[in-house]
Amino acid sequence: MKQQNQSTSPEIAAGQVWSMTDSTVEVTLIGKTLAHYKLIKTGAVRVPVSLINKAALQQFLLKNKAVLIKQLAPKAVS
């Protein structure tokens, strides 16, 4: 199995918005190993929050050639 260089995988952080050809991914929370995100398709009315492994989300973004369009400030948890 070939090791991947970490510089090729996108850094995932809370508050990021990634754009793809037909959808947008908004990263809401980042934990130790999991990430909460919203996959917003064009014309969607409701968008569920999904939970995935951080490495799997990075692979998804690489596979779909996502481009970082916004780095939002993370929301404060009270």
Radius of gyration: 13 Å
Q: N-to-C SSE series?
A: EEEEHE
* CATH topology tier name: Nucleotidyltransferase, domain 5
Strand content: 35-45%
Strand order of the largest sheet: 4-3-2-1-5
Walkthrough of the structure:
It contains one helix and five strands, in the order ββββαβ. The chain has 78 residues and is mainly β. It has one domain (16-71): Nucleotidyltransferase, domain 5. The chain has a five-stranded antiparallel β-sheet with strand order 4-3-2-1-5. The longest helix is centred in the last third of the chain and has 10 residues, at 54-63. It is globular and about 30 Å long. The protein starts with 15 loop residues before the first strand and ends in a 7-residue tail after the last strand. The model is unreliable at 3-7 (pLDDT under 50).
Keywords:
single chain; 78 residues; mainly beta; Nucleotidyltransferase, domain 5; five-stranded antiparallel sheet; 1 helix; globular
Question: How is the secondary structure organized here?
Answer:
Blueprint: E1 16-19, E2 23-30, E3 34-41, E4 49-53, H1 54-63, E5 67-71
Antiparallel strand pairs: 1-2, 1-5, 2-3, 3-4
